Amino acid sequence: MSIVDNEFVLEGGRTGVMLIHGLTGTPNEMRVVAKGLHRAGFTVYCVQLAGHCGTEEDLLATTWRDWYASVEAGAERLKKRVDNLFVGGLSMGALLALRLAAQRPDLVDGVAAYATMFRHDGWSMPAFTRLAFLLPVFRALGIGRHRSFLEQPPYGIKDENLRKRIVAQMQSGDSSAAGLPGNPWWAVAEMSVLSSTVRRQLRDIQSPCLVVHATEDDVASLRNAELIARRVTQAPVEMLLLKDSYHMVTIDRERRTVINKTIEFINRIVDEKGKAMGAAA
């Protein structure tokens, strides 16, 4: 299994989990969850999206289709070494996980959607970020290539000590550690197109979904999670609402709750799949 730059694999059993980071993020934001799932016996693969963990120009040279191609290729690689494959994503990574489930039901046994972001509509977001749907037009016209939405306090993290460490990493200039300090307009434009695409595909998803969202998410409001619960109709959707976290639920105060719920979700589906196969034999 080939590994790119900051990707990593934790070898485990025959149930695999691929974890997907968010826009301008890195696989590191999934590391805590990855280790927790690995301790439960799963093989875990944290994929790096195309254009990420480098410079802003690296990111702007890619589109949402490139990011999705990273996910689909990663899932195909992981599937070769496991019997059951689950996919989990944070923020924009959740959109990519949902798209994979819609596009490739042959690969995906279940989806964990963490702090899904169809829109930047959380309570800390500047009002103009809610007009992100206009950015694809800007990109098509060549407007705003070097403009960014800078990250705003509290940076998706409720835990103050953790927030200080993450912000220091973001401002260090090493994007492979904690990602870029801002969201380039053209990258947000691509995410907006991805969001619209996934919205239309939610009704095609046949894999069970675990939707994890903070009620006080500062970046993406609870409406983003509710959209999944409302539109995924061909598979069961389980919702976990967190009361003591902000957007970065994979590293914030309730990360252990997120890990334990994900383990329970995966084990239940694997058990049900095994029983169904046994009954059919």
TrEMBL record:
Domain Serine aminopeptidase S33 per the UniProt entry, residue ranges: 17-253
Pfam family membership, one: Hydrolase_4
Domain of life: Bacteria
Cell inner membrane among keywords: no
Gene Ontology CC terms, in alphabetical order: membrane
Active site: S91, D217, H247
Stored InterPro entries: AB_hydrolase_fold (IPR029058), AB_hydrolase_sf (IPR050266), Esterase_lipase (IPR012354), Hydrolase_4 (IPR022742)
Record keyword Repeat present: no
GO MF entry, a single one: carboxylic ester hydrolase activity
Keywords, comma-separated and alphabetical: Hydrolase
Coiled-coil ranges (or none): none
Protein name: Alpha/beta fold hydrolase
